[in-house]
Design a protein that fits this description.
This protein is about 40% helix and about 15% strand. Strand 2 (about 30-35), helix 1 and strand 3 form a beta-alpha-beta unit. Helix 3 crosses helix 4 (about 120-125), helix 4 (about 120-125) runs parallel beside helix 5 and helix 15 crosses helix 19 (about 490-495).
Length: about 750
Amino acid sequence: MVLNRNPDALSPFPGSVVHCESLINPRRETVMVLLHEASRSGAPILGWNIINELKIDHNVVAVVLKTGPIIAAIQSAANETVILPTATAWDGDDGARLAHELMSTYSPLYVIANSGLTSGVAVHMEECGAPVVALVHEFASDRPNTDTLNALFKHASRIVFPAQIVADDSLAAYPDLDVRKTVIQAQGSMKIPPIGKAVWAEAGRADATCGQFMGKDGRFTVLGIGSIIYRKGVDLFVSTADFLQRELGRHDIRFIWVGQTIASEMRYRRAIEAQVKKCGLEGVVEYYDEVDNLDPFYEAADLFLLSSRFDPLPNVAIDSMFQGVPVACFADAGGFSEIVSKCSLTGDLVLPYGSVSAAGRAIADLMDARRYRGELSAHIRQQALEHFDFDGYIRKITSLGHEAAEQMRQKRRDTKTILEANVFNKELCFGEQARDKTEQAVIAEYLEAIRFHWPLGSSRAKLHFGRPLPGFNPLIYDLEHPSKNGVFRDPLTDYLRKGKPQGRWAHKVIEPSDGFGASPLRTALHGHFHYPDLLEECLQSLSVNETKPDLFITTTNEGKIQKINTILEKSGWEAKEVWAVPNRGRNIFPFITDLPERLKGQYDIVCHIHGERSKYLSADRGVRWRSFAWQHLVGDREPMIDIVAAAFSNNPDVGLIFPEAPYFPGWGVNEGVATELADRIGVETPLPRHFDFPNGAMFWARPEALKPLFELKLDLSEVPVEPLPLDGTSLHALERLLPLVVEKAGYGYATTYVADVIR
């Protein structure tokens, strides 16, 4: 049974043509191949070869953005071919509509985007649910439109580069490119699609057989192949011939270039012709238009000179190696230098970038060693077999496609599970920018982000997502529920499917909706105000609560005490005590050294806050950070002191409460000093890889829960002097140790969460 297609299936796009000469078999999976054009150049030729190989086991639909000389070969190879009108840019709404039509018509298992220039269609196919394997043959630094590759890198499920240098170039241009998506895989030797004489005649080209070429003539023959464009370095090719003749006196040479002239590069072509004439190379440099059969040229060649200024991994150089022809190339110009340098007999043919003198001398050396040509050719063929396996390339591409398809299916299943659980917090996970997005879209974004940060076994302080719901740490869950057989499993989805099992990955969360009332607990608040003017803001937050804690206020010199007392009097508050401490140890040192004796036996719970301004944060971020902590611990819209006090009353096992932050902290440079302090406190080591802690050291606690810390007797000499480093001090270590200290004392911790108050 075959499924007939309506040639007008893509009717919303005038000018598109659907070819149905070879029809779709419904018993086979369908793969879609996107080609930016049907020219007789590297990427389209690769695309044609991919189609031929995939067609053995799949239905293949070719989507061609621009027709060209090999379109008939593509139509013959593919089960169906869609030729799109070139007048349309295929981005925005047009691209989305096209992707929807292609998806509804063909339902491809996955899509191969054969060139970054197909990005406009590829990104919308991914959005429609067809995972994209992007084959990026271009140097990112050579792309004038950075948005093209950026969109493809962001949306594609997998990205395949032909060589490490191409990947590195993309990573340099796009630092946010997720390396977990990337694969380095060189293509192999490929067939050249046939072109009928009618096509050649229409293009105004010479006969495909190129009868003018006479083959070997006894001279040492250097071959170059490619379009006559600046990137291919044809001028360097000619200059090398000139150097050999003029500087080295080698006249027994022949330089042959085969390739078409692109209309936009006619000025460059004329410059090359002038160069040949002025250098007196008319009998040395030969030019042949694009031909149907390159074999006679390879047979005549003694060396292939890849003169490109930048060229990712050209097919013609690969074919040269399979023909036993050595390849000379410039270092850092493309992926071929990586291959040539690995060959013991040809390592000297990797030349300093752009150096025609080095190229000339290398050719002269090879001319003098012509008697070793047989041995060298055999070695080069072996190297080609080892490095360029087209069957292996296809296996890799199809493997990536099937993996991506399964992951897409898994993402749909996971999205359904999370949606049905109705627990996902999109703003906590991605911040305020997620408010205008649908729940489903944000969940999909989360699943994509966490997948490409997996495995989650190493500490990461700057993941591109936050907690998917309050109280749940997916990194801790993943660590204690490892995936089997190296297959990714979303921690949140697994947690939900298993009925939300309890463990250190899920802690109690206190929300205003939990309720509150009069608390019998004796309550104190310690505030450290290096900047006294911030005290007034704090007192306003205190005023929304029924509970009025005793105030203990520290500052950094005697002169600031009067300012603080004035603010207290003006606001109608009275502090239990106000005193000055050295400006060393920030806010946490006076809390753990000066406060214990003042609290001893007098209070059930104590809050620690501070009003510092960080020089490492912008003014706006500093205000947001301080407001976030105070609204979660003291109050503003909600009477958080009342709420927290009630939570302590109702949960005697809770010893520490701090704001629920979206981030996943790590030890970073603090691990060494934290381990030393943990040993002194009696906290078990090695320290856990993933953990929660009160970022910024603002929290509520039971004094007895902090007893191990209070007994540390930290000396002021152990605290660094100002200006304090950004990270890596005993103070930074102490705030991260707080939950472990509380657990050492036999208590647990909880967090507060106030909706719409996101740091």
